[in-house]
Design goal:
Blueprint (H helix, E strand, L loop, with lengths): L6 E4 L9 H9 L3 E4 L12 E4 L6 H5 L6 E4 L9 H6 L3 E4 L5 H16 L17 H4 L9 E5 L3 H12 L3 E5 L11 E3 L2 H7 L2 E4 L13 H6 L4 E5 L8 H9 L3 E7 L17 E4 L7 H20 L13 E2 L1
Parallel strand pairs: 1-2, 1-3, 3-4, 4-5, 5-13, 6-7, 6-9, 7-8, 9-10, 10-11, 11-12
């Protein structure tokens, strides 16, 4: 039974004081979108919900008695108890490709900054000193620099194409073996790539099988002094092991785009000269923000229109775009 109109509750949103884009997206499809007040009784009336930070756990899902779809503003769905959603026959929708160029360029920028040692150099801008050697030690020509991209999703592929265009020796490792490579990319095993790369870009998805994926064992496989850049989820890293590798010099640099937990071991190295951390902003541009807001609502409603909460004969799949 297709649904032609319904209610979407915004549990929380990207801009707390503005739902104009989300409301317009819903209105175009003949639906109503309004902000959840926090009253749990309202949840029973929702045909769908959208959210960004709120954890949609088993208890929350149990209150969504009419809901067919949970939408997430973003690429990750780790805020949702997927098993509970599946048991409740609720689809889960995300938006995977809204910021591919933005995040790829941000990732590349972190890598270039660390490799080329482009940190602040205010002490010699007037040219009165001749100590240029201390600033350029270790810099390589692009053709002499090797990069390993771990994960060949949309962002990983865009990043790899950029590295090839810059003349870097570009190695790829992916869990999938059937992914075609573009010219200039070379498939390698993970351990072989780690041993050869000057820069390692981690672009894998975070799921229960990849928690703390980059651990002490993989750090031991790295070429000494290699730079590690991760703009995917910080949960992919063994944070204590990575922090220790920076401090003892095994890592020549660390680039992250993440909001760190206050108790994260990585907070102890934020002032390290070879550490560059941005606060989870790599996804952002005015266009990507607008697209994320619109598409989350539109995709959630479209998925809802093609499913029926009461159709017990048909499975309701997770929909990871």
């Amino acid at each position: 039974m297709a649904v032609t109109g319904g209610l979407v509750l915004a549990v929380d949103s990207l801009l707390d004081d503005d739902l104009t884009v989300e409301e317009a997206a819903a209105d175009e499809l003949g639906w109503e979108l309004r902000r959840w007040s926090g009253d749990y009784r309202e949840l029973a009336a929702a045909d769908a919900i959208v959210h960004v930070r709120r954890v949609i756990d088993r208890d929350f899902i149990s209150r969504l008695t009419s809901c067919r779809v949970v939408g997430r503003f973003g690429t990750g769905v780790d805020t949702v108890d997927l098993a509970a959603a599946e048991a409740a026959r609720i689809a889960v929708v995300n938006v995977r490709d809204y910021c591919v160029s933005e995040l790829s360029n941000h990732t590349l920028g972190l890598g270039l900054t660390l490799v080329q040692q482009l940190g602040p150099r205010h002490d010699n801008v007037d040219g009165q000193r001749h100590g240029w050697q201390e600033y350029i030690t270790g810099n390589r020509r692009a053709g002499d620099t090797s990069a390993l991209v771990i994960g060949l999703g949309a962002v990983g592929r865009h990043l790899a194409k950029s590295l090839v265009a810059l003349g870097w020796n570009t190695m790829i490792t992916s869990r999938r073996t059937d992914v075609p490579l573009d010219p200039g990319m070379r498939a390698v095993t993970l351990t072989r790539g780690l041993a050869r790369a000057d820069v390692v870009f981690v672009q894998r998805e975070l799921d229960p099988g990849t928690q703390r994926f980059f651990d002490e064992d993989l750090l031991r496989c790295l070429r000494p002094g290699a730079v590690l850049v991760n703009t995917a989820r910080v949960g992919l890293l063994d944070e204590g092991a990575v922090a220790a590798a920076v401090l003892d010099g095994r890592l020549g640099g660390l680039g992250l785009d993440a909001r760190l937990r206050p108790d994260s071991p990585l907070t102890d190295i934020l002032d390290h000269p070879r550490v560059l951390v941005t606060p989870h902003i790599g996804w952002y541009s005015e266009r990507s923000l607008s697209e994320l807001r619109r598409r989350t609502v539109a995709d959630t409603i479209t998925t809802c229109q093609h499913s029926s909460h009461h159709d017990t004969e048909q499975d309701v799949p997770h929909v990871f775009h």
